[in-house]
Design a protein that fits this description.
By secondary structure, the protein is an all-beta fold. Helices cover 0% and strands 38% of the residues.
Length: 178
C-alpha cells in the first residue's frame, strides 16, 4: 500500500492554471485518467502494475502519458487494474496489469508499463471502449461488440462460458446482422 505522502489527496489540474483544457475523465478505484481537448492523455494516482502508463509502477501526480504522444486520443477508460485509450484512427491501446485474466487484450497475462496497441483490432475501426474491473469491451464501426479479460462473472457476454478471454472476441448476441 502506498504511504500517505505518495498519494495525491487534493484534486489537481494538470499543468498550470492555463494548462490544457480537459475534455473527459475516467476514474478507477486507485487511479484516474484525463483526455485533453487536443487528444493527449494524463494520468495520476496509485501507479501499481503500471496502470498509469508512465513506464514504471510509481505513484504520480497528474502527468502526461508520453507514450501516447503523437496519437490523438478520443476516449479513455479506467479499469480496476488497467487502462484503455481509443485513438482517432480507431485503434485501442491498453496498459497496466494483465495478470491472471488477460484484461489487456494482447493474448497473454503480462503487465504493460506503457500503452500498447491491441493488435487483434488490426483492420477494424473501433468507435467505443470501456474498461471493467478486469475486462474490456469495444464496439467496432460495423456494430460488433468485442470483449476480453476475466469471464468468471459473465461480463464477457458468452452465457455459460465463463472462461477468461486473452484476446478480444465478438459477443454473438451483438454480431452484425443479428
Amino acid at each position: 500500500r502506498p504511504v500517505a505522502e505518495q498519494r495525491v489527496l487534493v484534486p489537481t489540474t494538470p499543468g498550470a492554471s492555463t494548462g490544457p483544457r480537459l475534455a473527459a475523465v475516467a476514474l478507477a478505484r486507485s487511479h484516474s485518467l484525463a483526455r485533453t481537448a487536443d487528444g493527449a492523455v494524463w494520468s495520476w494516482g496509485w501507479g501499481d502494475h503500471g496502470w498509469l502508463g508512465h513506464g514504471d509502477d510509481k505513484n504520480q501526480p497528474p502527468k502526461k502519458v508520453q507514450a501516447l504522444a503523437g496519437q490523438r486520443v478520443v476516449a479513455v477508460s479506467a479499469g480496476a487494474r488497467h487502462s484503455l485509450a481509443l485513438t482517432a484512427d480507431g485503434a485501442v491501446w491498453s496498459w497496466g496489469s494483465g495478470d491472471e485474466e488477460g484484461q489487456l487484450g494482447h493474448g497473454d497475462e503480462q503487465r504493460q508499463l506503457l500503452p500498447k496497441k491491441i493488435e487483434a483490432f488490426a483492420g477494424q475501426r473501433v468507435v467505443a471502449v470501456s474498461a471493467g474491473s478486469c475486462h474490456g469491451i469495444a464496439i467496432t464501426a460495423d456494430g460488433a461488440v468485442c470483449a476480453w479479460g476475466e469471464g468468471r462473472h459473465g461480463g464477457l457476454g458468452r452465457g455459460e462460458d465463463v472462461s477468461d478471454q486473452l484476446l478480444p472476441k465478438k459477443v454473438e448476441a451483438w454480431a452484425p446482422g443479428q
